[in-house]
Amino acid sequence: MDVAQSLQQRTGSPAEGVWSAPGRVNLIGEHTDYNDGLCLPMALPLRTRVAASRRDDDLVVASSEGFGRVVRTSIGDVGPGRPKGWAAYVLGVLWALREAGHDVRGLELSIDSDVPSGAGLSSSAALECAVGAAASDLFDLGLLGSDERRVELAAACVRAENDIAMAATGGMDQAVALRSREGALLLLDCQDGSVEHVRAEIDGHVVLVTDTRSPHQLVDGQYEARRRDCETAARSAGVASLREIEPEDLPALLGRVDEVVGRRARHVVTENARVRLVVDALRSGNLAAVGAALSAGHASLRDDFEVTVPHLDVAVESAVAAGALGARMTGGGFGGSTVALVPSELVEPVQARIREDYAARGWEEPAFHVATPSGPATREA
């Protein structure tokens, strides 16, 4: 049963429309977004779909096959830390739109998604942006009509995640879900919010995503701790953010901060440089350089930023051992997924090697997705 049928079965009336938004995978540029840095993600074919109809009151009634329950909450009852769970991402967007001055009222919602939850593929932003897209159209907000208006909607979705779901994430995921273009990666400059669409010139190769089945959590304090360390490093350097630090400036910075803060800063500064390198390498067709940058990024995330876990490290090591040009964890870390640049003829051997190495450790079998750059949030029906 699709979401429109599900909503009609529950409410007895047809849905007014169906909207969807994509998950994302970040090729390079991790933990740079909240440091005003650069990142290079792409929207995935995996999408969250929302069927919606307006109500005459402030009540939001949302059902989801995946989460197995119905949520009933008034927008007026939403606040920091409430409601809990997946409902925070739904209600938080409507709350944020109202806070921004938009006339948003209650909705009937039915939700379904093939973006795996906890895989580091931004299922939360896909949910936020699908709900936001529905609200924009149903309440005539016009937030899907141009890139500038989509920036406004992305900001509301970020506020929902930060202030209601209480996850101190940056804005990369929402930007991808709302501003991507099919066939291109999104070069996002988080300092000024500007984007550039970079064609994925990887003929003969694929971007292979491995869902390690090691669920990640961004709301347990680890993400916030990394963010604080980065802010401490920027203050010590006398700059607004680590974006203002270039690799050649690192020795001076590292001499002013403790070892842990220094390693966090080193990751962010070198990661921004890797994003620039990968963009140039993609444009010139130098896929070996792309692969090397992915692997270097993983080493930095593992050793300097300390956000990997054994499942991620093994998936990366196994992919490279089986012929991938490079691989790295993607997403916030502490579980989730990896991404690898793999020659097309080696996709099956790479998958087999990762499965074998997981089985040898008694771990759950991972899942795989081939990532192709896809389009942004839109109305489907």
From TrEMBL:
Q: Which Pfam families match?
A: GalKase_gal_bdg, GHMP_kinases_C, GHMP_kinases_N
The record's Gene Ontology biological-process terms are: galactose metabolic process
Superkingdom, taxonomy of origin: Bacteria
Positions of the Galactokinase N-terminal domain: 8-54
What Gene Ontology terms describe what this protein does at the molecular function level? Answer: ATP binding; galactokinase activity; metal ion binding
| Every GHMP kinase N-terminal domain range | 89-179
Protein keywords: ATP-binding, Carbohydrate metabolism, Galactose metabolism, Kinase, Magnesium, Metal-binding, Nucleotide-binding, Transferase
Leading EC class: transferase
Gene3D superfamilies under this entry?
A: 3.30.230.10, GHMP kinase, C-terminal domain (3.30.70.890)
Record's GO cellular component, any one? cytosol
In short, the EC number is: 2.7.1.6
- Domain spans labelled GHMP kinase C-terminal: 279-359
Q: Which InterPro entries match?
A: Galactokinase, Galactokinase_CS, GalKase_N, GHMP_kinase_C_dom, GHMP_kinase_C_sf, GHMP_kinase_N_dom, GHMP_knse_ATP-bd_CS, Mevalonate/galactokinase
Looking up SUPFAM superfamilies in the UniProt record yields: GHMP Kinase, C-terminal domain, Ribosomal protein S5 domain 2-like
The similarity comment for this entry is: Belongs to the GHMP kinase family. GalK subfamily.
| Name of the featured protein | Galactokinase
Q: Which organism is it from?
A: Janibacter melonis
Lineage in the entry? Bacteria, Bacillati, Actinomycetota, Actinomycetes, Micrococcales
